[in-house]
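In the current project phase, we have settled on a layout for protein records. One protein thus recorded is set out beneath this paragraph:
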Amino acid sequence: MVKNNFLSEICLNTQTKNNRETQTSMESKKIVVVGSTNMDMVVKTSHIPVPGETVLTGSFFMNPGGKGANQAVAVARLGGNVTFISKVGNDVFGKQSAQLFDEEDINTFHVLSDPDLPSGVALITVDDKGENSIVVASGANANLLPADLEDALADIADAGVVLMQLEIPLQTVEFVAKYAASKGISVILDPAPAKQLSAELLTALDIITPNQTEAEILSGIKVNNIESAKKAAKIIYGHGVKQVVITMGTLGAVIYQGNKAEVIPARKVEAVDSTAAGDVFNGALAVALSEGKPLTQAVEFACMVAAISVTRLGAQSSIPYRNEIIAHQVSTDHLAKD
Protein backbone atom coordinates (compact mmCIF):
# COMPACT_ATOMS: atom_id res chain seq x y z
CA MET A 1 0.00 0.00 0.00
CA VAL A 2 1.13 3.56 -0.68
CA LYS A 3 2.64 5.38 2.27
CA ASN A 4 1.62 8.98 3.01
CA ASN A 5 2.79 11.10 5.94
CA PHE A 6 0.18 13.83 5.43
CA LEU A 7 -2.25 14.26 8.34
CA SER A 8 -0.17 11.97 10.55
CA GLU A 9 -1.15 14.12 13.54
CA ILE A 10 -4.72 12.82 13.37
CA CYS A 11 -3.73 9.52 14.90
CA LEU A 12 -4.02 10.59 18.52
CA ASN A 13 -2.25 8.64 21.25
CA THR A 14 -0.38 6.47 18.70
CA GLN A 15 1.96 3.95 20.29
CA THR A 16 5.04 2.45 18.66
CA LYS A 17 5.58 -1.07 17.46
CA ASN A 18 7.90 -1.57 20.44
CA ASN A 19 4.75 -1.36 22.56
CA ARG A 20 3.24 -4.22 20.59
CA GLU A 21 6.38 -6.31 20.92
CA THR A 22 6.03 -6.29 24.71
CA GLN A 23 2.66 -8.02 24.48
CA THR A 24 2.27 -11.62 25.49
CA SER A 25 2.62 -14.04 22.59
CA MET A 26 -0.38 -16.36 22.41
CA GLU A 27 -1.43 -19.11 20.03
CA SER A 28 -4.52 -17.97 18.17
CA LYS A 29 -6.42 -18.60 14.97
CA LYS A 30 -6.44 -16.04 12.18
CA ILE A 31 -9.20 -13.44 12.28
CA VAL A 32 -10.62 -11.91 9.10
CA VAL A 33 -12.47 -8.61 9.50
CA VAL A 34 -14.69 -7.55 6.61
CA GLY A 35 -16.02 -4.02 6.86
CA SER A 36 -15.81 -0.28 6.53
CA THR A 37 -13.04 2.28 6.66
CA ASN A 38 -13.88 5.93 7.42
CA MET A 39 -12.23 9.14 8.47
CA ASP A 40 -14.00 10.38 11.61
CA MET A 41 -14.52 14.13 12.03
CA VAL A 42 -15.34 14.63 15.69
CA VAL A 43 -16.81 17.60 17.54
CA LYS A 44 -16.81 17.56 21.35
CA THR A 45 -19.67 19.63 22.76
CA SER A 46 -21.76 20.11 25.89
CA HIS A 47 -24.79 18.39 24.38
CA ILE A 48 -25.93 16.87 21.11
CA PRO A 49 -28.02 19.52 19.30
CA VAL A 50 -31.67 18.96 18.48
CA PRO A 51 -32.96 19.71 14.95
CA GLY A 52 -32.61 23.42 14.17
CA GLU A 53 -30.18 24.08 17.04
CA THR A 54 -26.63 25.41 16.61
CA VAL A 55 -24.09 24.73 19.34
CA LEU A 56 -20.80 26.61 19.52
CA THR A 57 -17.80 24.60 20.69
CA GLY A 58 -14.03 24.79 20.41
CA SER A 59 -13.06 21.13 20.26
CA PHE A 60 -12.61 19.37 16.90
CA PHE A 61 -10.30 16.62 15.69
CA MET A 62 -10.02 14.01 12.96
CA ASN A 63 -9.40 10.39 13.78
CA PRO A 64 -9.27 7.26 11.60
CA GLY A 65 -12.39 5.16 12.07
CA GLY A 66 -15.06 3.05 10.42
CA LYS A 67 -16.51 0.06 12.24
CA GLY A 68 -14.51 -2.47 10.25
CA ALA A 69 -11.24 -0.58 10.61
CA ASN A 70 -11.83 -0.02 14.32
CA GLN A 71 -12.40 -3.72 14.86
CA ALA A 72 -9.34 -4.68 12.82
CA VAL A 73 -7.16 -2.29 14.83
CA ALA A 74 -8.62 -3.63 18.09
CA VAL A 75 -7.78 -7.19 17.03
CA ALA A 76 -4.22 -6.20 16.10
CA ARG A 77 -3.55 -4.24 19.30
CA LEU A 78 -4.86 -7.09 21.41
CA GLY A 79 -2.44 -9.51 19.82
CA GLY A 80 -4.65 -11.10 17.17
CA ASN A 81 -3.53 -12.22 13.73
CA VAL A 82 -5.81 -10.10 11.53
CA THR A 83 -6.52 -9.74 7.83
CA PHE A 84 -8.72 -6.79 6.86
CA ILE A 85 -11.00 -6.71 3.80
CA SER A 86 -12.28 -3.23 2.94
CA LYS A 87 -12.50 -0.57 0.23
CA VAL A 88 -11.25 3.03 0.40
CA GLY A 89 -11.13 5.92 -2.05
CA ASN A 90 -8.11 6.89 -4.13
CA ASP A 91 -7.65 9.99 -1.98
CA VAL A 92 -5.66 11.32 0.96
CA PHE A 93 -7.93 9.66 3.54
CA GLY A 94 -7.60 6.30 1.80
CA LYS A 95 -3.82 6.56 1.64
CA GLN A 96 -3.65 7.68 5.28
CA SER A 97 -5.77 4.72 6.35
CA ALA A 98 -3.49 2.32 4.44
CA GLN A 99 -0.45 3.75 6.20
CA LEU A 100 -2.04 3.44 9.60
CA PHE A 101 -3.10 -0.17 8.95
CA ASP A 102 0.50 -0.98 8.02
CA GLU A 103 1.70 0.60 11.26
CA GLU A 104 -0.75 -1.60 13.19
CA ASP A 105 0.62 -4.79 11.55
CA ILE A 106 -2.71 -5.49 9.85
CA ASN A 107 -2.65 -7.60 6.68
CA THR A 108 -4.00 -5.11 4.10
CA PHE A 109 -3.58 -7.17 0.92
CA HIS A 110 -7.38 -7.07 0.48
CA VAL A 111 -7.89 -3.38 1.26
CA LEU A 112 -8.98 -2.19 -2.17
CA SER A 113 -8.90 1.30 -3.70
CA ASP A 114 -12.00 2.52 -5.54
CA PRO A 115 -11.10 4.63 -8.60
CA ASP A 116 -14.34 6.61 -8.57
CA LEU A 117 -15.79 6.94 -5.06
CA PRO A 118 -14.19 8.83 -2.15
CA SER A 119 -13.24 7.29 1.17
CA GLY A 120 -15.99 7.06 3.75
CA VAL A 121 -16.42 9.95 6.19
CA ALA A 122 -18.21 9.99 9.56
CA LEU A 123 -19.42 13.20 11.23
CA ILE A 124 -19.51 12.57 14.99
CA THR A 125 -20.81 14.72 17.85
CA VAL A 126 -19.79 13.70 21.37
CA ASP A 127 -21.40 15.27 24.46
CA ASP A 128 -20.07 15.79 27.99
CA LYS A 129 -21.46 12.40 29.10
CA GLY A 130 -19.61 10.52 26.38
CA GLU A 131 -22.75 9.83 24.33
CA ASN A 132 -22.52 10.34 20.59
CA SER A 133 -24.47 11.02 17.41
CA ILE A 134 -23.02 9.84 14.08
CA VAL A 135 -23.78 10.51 10.41
CA VAL A 136 -21.82 8.50 7.84
CA ALA A 137 -21.17 9.23 4.15
CA SER A 138 -20.29 5.70 3.03
CA GLY A 139 -18.32 6.50 -0.13
CA ALA A 140 -16.23 3.53 -1.27
CA ASN A 141 -17.58 1.36 1.56
CA ALA A 142 -20.90 1.11 -0.30
CA ASN A 143 -19.08 -0.36 -3.29
CA LEU A 144 -17.42 -3.33 -1.54
CA LEU A 145 -19.29 -6.05 -3.41
CA PRO A 146 -19.12 -9.86 -3.54
CA ALA A 147 -17.37 -9.66 -6.90
CA ASP A 148 -14.48 -7.85 -5.18
CA LEU A 149 -13.84 -10.76 -2.83
CA GLU A 150 -12.75 -13.52 -5.20
CA ASP A 151 -9.08 -13.11 -4.32
CA ALA A 152 -9.91 -13.00 -0.59
CA LEU A 153 -11.83 -16.28 -0.40
CA ALA A 154 -8.73 -18.34 0.37
CA ASP A 155 -7.91 -16.12 3.35
CA ILE A 156 -11.50 -16.33 4.57
CA ALA A 157 -11.44 -20.12 4.26
CA ASP A 158 -8.20 -20.21 6.27
CA ALA A 159 -9.58 -18.12 9.14
CA GLY A 160 -10.72 -19.25 12.54
CA VAL A 161 -13.07 -16.30 13.03
CA VAL A 162 -14.75 -13.90 10.59
CA LEU A 163 -16.01 -10.60 12.03
CA MET A 164 -18.37 -8.24 10.16
CA GLN A 165 -20.63 -5.23 10.60
CA LEU A 166 -23.28 -3.49 8.46
CA GLU A 167 -21.48 -0.40 7.11
CA ILE A 168 -20.88 -2.29 3.86
CA PRO A 169 -23.55 -3.68 1.49
CA LEU A 170 -25.78 -6.30 3.06
CA GLN A 171 -25.34 -8.57 0.04
CA THR A 172 -21.61 -8.67 0.79
CA VAL A 173 -22.20 -9.52 4.45
CA GLU A 174 -24.58 -12.32 3.45
CA PHE A 175 -22.14 -13.65 0.84
CA VAL A 176 -19.24 -13.80 3.30
CA ALA A 177 -21.35 -15.24 6.13
CA LYS A 178 -22.70 -18.07 3.99
CA TYR A 179 -19.29 -18.81 2.48
CA ALA A 180 -17.57 -18.88 5.88
CA ALA A 181 -20.33 -20.99 7.40
CA SER A 182 -19.98 -23.50 4.54
CA LYS A 183 -16.30 -23.86 5.51
CA GLY A 184 -17.10 -24.36 9.20
CA ILE A 185 -15.66 -20.98 10.20
CA SER A 186 -17.08 -19.08 13.17
CA VAL A 187 -18.92 -15.93 12.03
CA ILE A 188 -19.53 -12.96 14.34
CA LEU A 189 -21.84 -10.16 13.21
CA ASP A 190 -22.06 -6.76 14.87
CA PRO A 191 -25.46 -5.72 13.42
CA ALA A 192 -24.72 -2.00 13.26
CA PRO A 193 -26.04 0.28 11.91
CA ALA A 194 -29.35 -1.27 12.92
CA LYS A 195 -31.48 -2.90 10.22
CA GLN A 196 -33.66 -5.92 9.61
CA LEU A 197 -31.76 -9.09 8.70
CA SER A 198 -32.85 -12.07 6.62
CA ALA A 199 -33.40 -15.52 8.11
CA GLU A 200 -30.78 -16.79 5.64
CA LEU A 201 -28.14 -14.50 7.15
CA LEU A 202 -29.11 -15.13 10.77
CA THR A 203 -28.84 -18.90 10.42
CA ALA A 204 -25.30 -18.52 9.01
CA LEU A 205 -24.11 -16.71 12.15
CA ASP A 206 -22.43 -18.23 15.16
CA ILE A 207 -22.64 -15.05 17.26
CA ILE A 208 -24.57 -11.81 16.89
CA THR A 209 -23.76 -8.83 19.13
CA PRO A 210 -26.54 -6.21 18.96
CA ASN A 211 -26.76 -3.25 21.32
CA GLN A 212 -30.12 -2.34 22.86
CA THR A 213 -31.43 -0.47 19.80
CA GLU A 214 -30.35 -3.19 17.40
CA ALA A 215 -31.80 -5.90 19.65
CA GLU A 216 -35.16 -4.10 19.58
CA ILE A 217 -35.20 -4.11 15.77
CA LEU A 218 -34.23 -7.78 15.57
CA SER A 219 -36.64 -8.98 18.27
CA GLY A 220 -39.53 -6.51 18.26
CA ILE A 221 -39.14 -6.06 22.03
CA LYS A 222 -38.31 -2.77 23.74
CA VAL A 223 -34.96 -3.34 25.45
CA ASN A 224 -34.44 -1.05 28.44
CA ASN A 225 -33.24 -3.35 31.22
CA ILE A 226 -31.66 -6.77 31.78
CA GLU A 227 -34.95 -8.69 31.85
CA SER A 228 -36.17 -7.25 28.56
CA ALA A 229 -32.73 -7.95 27.08
CA LYS A 230 -33.04 -11.61 28.09
CA LYS A 231 -36.43 -11.82 26.35
CA ALA A 232 -35.08 -10.14 23.22
CA ALA A 233 -32.04 -12.43 23.17
CA LYS A 234 -34.27 -15.49 23.39
CA ILE A 235 -36.31 -14.33 20.39
CA ILE A 236 -33.17 -13.58 18.33
CA TYR A 237 -31.76 -16.98 19.32
CA GLY A 238 -35.00 -18.50 18.06
CA HIS A 239 -34.28 -17.03 14.61
CA GLY A 240 -31.39 -19.47 14.23
CA VAL A 241 -28.33 -17.63 15.60
CA LYS A 242 -26.31 -20.04 17.71
CA GLN A 243 -25.26 -17.50 20.37
CA VAL A 244 -26.60 -14.01 21.15
CA VAL A 245 -24.70 -11.32 23.06
CA ILE A 246 -26.63 -8.10 23.72
CA THR A 247 -24.39 -5.25 24.84
CA MET A 248 -26.08 -3.05 27.45
CA GLY A 249 -23.56 -0.27 28.07
CA THR A 250 -23.20 0.40 31.80
CA LEU A 251 -25.41 -2.63 32.53
CA GLY A 252 -22.92 -5.03 30.96
CA ALA A 253 -23.89 -7.75 28.49
CA VAL A 254 -26.52 -10.48 28.24
CA ILE A 255 -25.46 -13.83 26.75
CA TYR A 256 -28.03 -16.29 25.43
CA GLN A 257 -26.95 -19.76 24.36
CA GLY A 258 -28.35 -23.25 24.80
CA ASN A 259 -31.73 -21.80 25.92
CA LYS A 260 -30.03 -20.14 28.90
CA ALA A 261 -29.35 -16.46 29.66
CA GLU A 262 -26.32 -15.14 31.54
CA VAL A 263 -25.45 -11.59 32.60
CA ILE A 264 -21.88 -10.26 32.47
CA PRO A 265 -21.58 -7.04 34.54
CA ALA A 266 -19.86 -3.97 33.11
CA ARG A 267 -16.72 -2.46 34.59
CA LYS A 268 -17.39 0.84 36.35
CA VAL A 269 -15.51 3.70 34.68
CA GLU A 270 -16.00 7.39 33.98
CA ALA A 271 -16.92 7.52 30.30
CA VAL A 272 -15.43 10.22 28.08
CA ASP A 273 -16.34 8.98 24.60
CA SER A 274 -18.27 5.82 23.68
CA THR A 275 -17.82 6.18 19.90
CA ALA A 276 -15.84 2.97 19.36
CA ALA A 277 -16.95 1.00 22.41
CA GLY A 278 -18.98 -1.51 20.40
CA ASP A 279 -16.18 -1.99 17.88
CA VAL A 280 -13.61 -2.52 20.61
CA PHE A 281 -15.95 -5.00 22.31
CA ASN A 282 -16.32 -7.03 19.11
CA GLY A 283 -12.62 -6.96 18.28
CA ALA A 284 -11.77 -8.13 21.79
CA LEU A 285 -14.46 -10.82 21.63
CA ALA A 286 -13.00 -12.16 18.38
CA VAL A 287 -9.48 -12.24 19.85
CA ALA A 288 -10.56 -14.08 22.98
CA LEU A 289 -12.51 -16.65 20.98
CA SER A 290 -9.59 -17.13 18.58
CA GLU A 291 -7.45 -17.98 21.61
CA GLY A 292 -9.89 -20.73 22.62
CA LYS A 293 -11.70 -18.97 25.46
CA PRO A 294 -15.31 -20.04 26.06
CA LEU A 295 -17.96 -17.42 25.28
CA THR A 296 -18.52 -16.28 28.86
CA GLN A 297 -14.82 -15.59 29.43
CA ALA A 298 -14.56 -13.97 26.01
CA VAL A 299 -17.42 -11.59 26.82
CA GLU A 300 -15.86 -10.75 30.20
CA PHE A 301 -12.61 -9.88 28.41
CA ALA A 302 -14.47 -7.82 25.81
CA CYS A 303 -16.35 -5.88 28.50
CA MET A 304 -13.09 -5.02 30.24
CA VAL A 305 -11.37 -3.84 27.05
CA ALA A 306 -14.40 -1.78 25.99
CA ALA A 307 -14.57 -0.16 29.43
CA ILE A 308 -10.99 1.05 29.08
CA SER A 309 -11.70 2.44 25.60
CA VAL A 310 -14.58 4.69 26.73
CA THR A 311 -12.24 6.55 29.10
CA ARG A 312 -10.44 8.01 26.04
CA LEU A 313 -11.42 10.30 23.18
CA GLY A 314 -11.68 9.09 19.60
CA ALA A 315 -12.23 5.82 17.81
CA GLN A 316 -8.95 4.05 17.02
CA SER A 317 -7.08 6.37 19.36
CA SER A 318 -9.12 4.94 22.24
CA ILE A 319 -8.26 1.29 21.59
CA PRO A 320 -5.93 -0.18 24.23
CA TYR A 321 -3.00 -2.54 23.63
CA ARG A 322 -2.77 -6.02 25.13
CA ASN A 323 -0.06 -4.99 27.59
CA GLU A 324 -2.38 -2.28 28.93
CA ILE A 325 -5.05 -4.92 29.52
CA ILE A 326 -2.55 -7.11 31.36
CA ALA A 327 -1.48 -4.15 33.51
CA HIS A 328 -5.12 -3.32 34.23
CA GLN A 329 -5.82 -6.92 35.30
CA VAL A 330 -2.80 -6.96 37.60
CA SER A 331 -3.86 -3.65 39.16
CA THR A 332 -7.45 -4.84 39.60
CA ASP A 333 -6.35 -8.13 41.18
CA HIS A 334 -4.02 -6.24 43.54
CA LEU A 335 -6.81 -3.90 44.66
CA ALA A 336 -9.15 -6.84 45.17
CA LYS A 337 -6.65 -8.54 47.48
CA ASP A 338 -6.26 -5.34 49.50
